[in-house]
Design a protein that fits this description.
single chain; five-stranded mixed sheet
Length: 178
């Protein structure tokens, strides 16, 4: 049993590294997809607009794919913006999880940075989400007045799929300057 888990983790790690080795250059198409995701999340709940207007910067992942059976993972690429909507770079997110999980899903994720120091930490490569990090699901008409935690607020919006999980893991980010 232990060997099977180690083999699965090895295969998953290879997959993550293969995905990270893909193209390193961000295009206008990548920025456009992020802007479309922003419009989609604002249309779902216009109260989130205040986060876009008041944060120092934000990272937008138009589509993160996630899946697992016992061992799982997620991958997505997005665009990082500074206040005012200026794209400053691209970012890749990878995640590995272990625990009870079954299924797959796709979702939009937006990470808001309250201050310059939180933004600089993210783009400087010193940023990971620990297992205790939480995200707020964007639903129609719901209040979005959550406080920043350690200078960061995270929102997700489901796009499709179904995932059951009680896992441990974390998200790792790789920033690529434009």
């Amino acid at each position: 049993m232990r060997i099977k888990i180690q083999v699965l983790l090895f295969i998953l790690s290879l997959s993550v590294f293969t995905l990270q080795a893909q193209k390193k250059k961000w295009t206008q198409e990548d920025v456009k997809k992020a802007q479309e995701a922003i419009a989609e999340i604002k249309a779902k709940n216009d109260k989130i607009s205040s986060f876009f207007g008041n944060s120092y910067g934000y990272a937008v992942f138009p589509s993160i794919g996630k899946g697992g059976i016992g061992v799982g993972g997620a991958y997505g690429k997005g665009t990082v913006f500074k206040k005012g909507g200026k794209a400053t770079g691209g970012v890749r997110m990878t995640q590995v999880t272990i625990g009870f999980q079954f299924g797959g899903q796709a979702y939009i994720e937006v990470i808001f940075f309250q201050s310059k120091s939180a933004y600089d930490s993210f783009v400087g490569g010193n940023f990971e989400f620990a297992p205790s990090a939480t995200a707020v699901a964007v639903t129609e008409g719901a209040a979005v007045n959550i406080p920043y935690k350690n200078g960061v607020a995270v929102f997700t919006m489901a796009k499709g799929g179904l995932m059951y999980e009680a896992t441990l893991g974390g998200q790792k980010f790789d920033f690529i300057e434009l």
